[in-house]
């Protein structure tokens, strides 16, 4: 698979968010809610530091599994789950492999782009972020997203938020 474009990743993320999960294009998502709604067996366990996660899918595509390194930050765990969702739902030829922080293959880079726009969609960043904290410790909330019903803490990496803001042309 060749690397997908940002626009394609946004369309795939919107498809999963809106069609499969019944979320809007811009509301924050809880990764645990996503996993529950998609019925994906997920285990969080300590793994070696160079491994973030792995996903598996049965040949009939009925059963899905994700293993996530619990030694990495909550934001990195969420990113890993979103990365693995790309492999489970959109990878043309998913093969079990260990995913780490560095990805050079086109499919891995595509999964990274997808994870970024799935967790931090353009509309959500530019429209809904009401507060960004000045300093962030490991596993802290980095932003509060205001919806019509509630305030939702965003647990992603600060680096991920900043990359999303830059990607989307935030001044």
Radius of gyration: 15 Å
What integer is the average pLDDT? 79
Give the helix proportion (percent range).
40-55%
Order of helices and strands: HHEEEHHHEEEH
Structural class: alpha+beta
Shape: globular
Fraction in beta strands: 15-25%
Distance between the termini: 34 Å
Count the strands?
6
Unreliable stretches: none
Major β-sheet profile: 3 strands, mixed
Quickly count the helices. 6
Strand order of the largest sheet: 1-3-2
Q: Can I get a quick summary?
A:
With 171 residues, the protein is α+β, with helices and mostly antiparallel strands.
Characterise the protein shown here:
The protein is an alpha+beta fold. It has six helices and six strands. Helix 1 crosses helix 4 and helix 3 crosses helix 4. It is globular. The N and C termini lie far apart (34 Å). The model has no long low-confidence stretch (mean pLDDT 79).
Q: Characteristics of this structure?
A:
41% helix, 6 helices, 171 residues, three-stranded mixed β-sheet, three-stranded antiparallel β-sheet
Task: Describe the protein's topology.
Elements: H1 6-20, H2 31-38, E1 41-45, E2 53-57, E3 64-69, H3 74-89, H4 106-119, H5 122-128, E4 129-132, E5 143-146, E6 151-154, H6 158-167
Parallel strand pairs: 1-3
Antiparallel strand pairs: 2-3, 4-5, 5-6
């Amino acid at each position: 698979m060749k690397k997908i474009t940002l626009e394609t990743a946004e369309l795939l993320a919107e498809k999963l968010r809106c069609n499969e999960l019944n979320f809007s294009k811009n509301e924050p998502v809880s990764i645990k809610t996503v996993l529950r709604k998609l019925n994906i067996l997920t285990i969080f366990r300590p793994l070696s530091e160079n491994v973030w996660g792995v996903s598996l899918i049965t040949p009939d595509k009925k059963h899905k599994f994700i293993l996530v390194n619990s030694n990495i930050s909550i934001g990195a765990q969420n990113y890993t789950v979103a990365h693995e969702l790309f492999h489970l739902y959109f990878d043309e030829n998913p093969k079990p492999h260990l995913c780490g922080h560095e990805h050079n293959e086109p499919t891995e880079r595509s999964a990274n782009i997808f994870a970024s726009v799935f967790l931090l969609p353009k509309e959500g960043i530019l429209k809904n972020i009401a507060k960004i904290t000045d300093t962030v410790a490991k596993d802290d909330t980095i932003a509060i997203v205001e919806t019509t019903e509630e305030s939702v803490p965003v647990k992603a990496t600060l680096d991920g938020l900043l990359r999303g803001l830059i990607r989307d042309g935030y001044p």
